[in-house]
Design brief:
45% helix; single chain; flat; mainly alpha
C-alpha cells in the first residue's frame, strides 16, 4: 500500500495537510526525535482550528496570535450580548407582556451589576500583590 508523501497516510488520504512540526535530533540524546511544540500531539488529536493556530503562531508570533484571537472572540461575544439585549427589549411590548416599573428597574440593575463585574475583570492588574511576611525584629531577652 502506498503512502501520501505529505502526511504519510495510506492513499487516498484525507487531503488535509496541516503544517506538521519539523523534527530534529538532540545531539546529547542520540536518536531522540523532538518536536518544536511544547506538547507533541498527533494530527488526529488536533482540530483544524488548533492546527491553524499553531501555524499562525510560528509565522506571526504568540502576541499577534493572542491579540487576533481576542479580537475575534471579544467581537463575537459582544455582538451576542447586544443581540440578547435587543431580544430582551421585545419584552417591552405591553400588548403581549405585563410588567411593573419595579420589574424593569430590577432587570437593568442586574444587567448593570453584571456589566460592572465584567469590566472589573478587565481592569485587574496582571500581577496581583503577593502575601509576604515581614522580617521579624530581633527578639531581645
Amino acid at each position: 500500500m502506498s503512502k501520501c508523501p505529505e502526511c504519510g497516510e495510506p492513499i487516498p488520504c484525507s487531503g488535509f495537510h496541516p503544517a506538521v512540526p519539523k523534527a530534529f535530533t538532540l545531539p546529547q540524546a542520540s536518536g531522540t526525535v523532538v518536536y518544536d511544540s511544547p506538547v507533541v500531539v498527533s494530527q488526529e488529536q488536533r482540530t483544524p482550528s488548533e492546527m491553524r493556530d499553531v501555524a499562525r503562531t510560528r509565522f506571526l508570533g504568540l502576541r499577534a496570535v493572542n491579540r487576533e484571537r481576542f479580537m475575534r472572540i471579544a467581537e463575537n461575544r459582544t455582538n451576542a450580548v447586544i443581540e440578547r439585549l435587543r431580544i430582551l427589549g421585545n419584552c417591552s411590548n405591553r400588548g403581549a407582556y405585563e410588567y411593573t416599573p419595579a420589574d424593569v428597574k430590577r432587570i437593568f440593575e442586574e444587567i448593570t451589576r453584571a456589566a460592572e463585574s465584567t469590566r472589573r475583570q478587565f481592569e485587574r492588574t496582571a500581577s496581583r500583590p503577593r502575601f509576604k511576611l515581614e522580617a521579624s525584629p530581633a527578639v531581645e531577652e
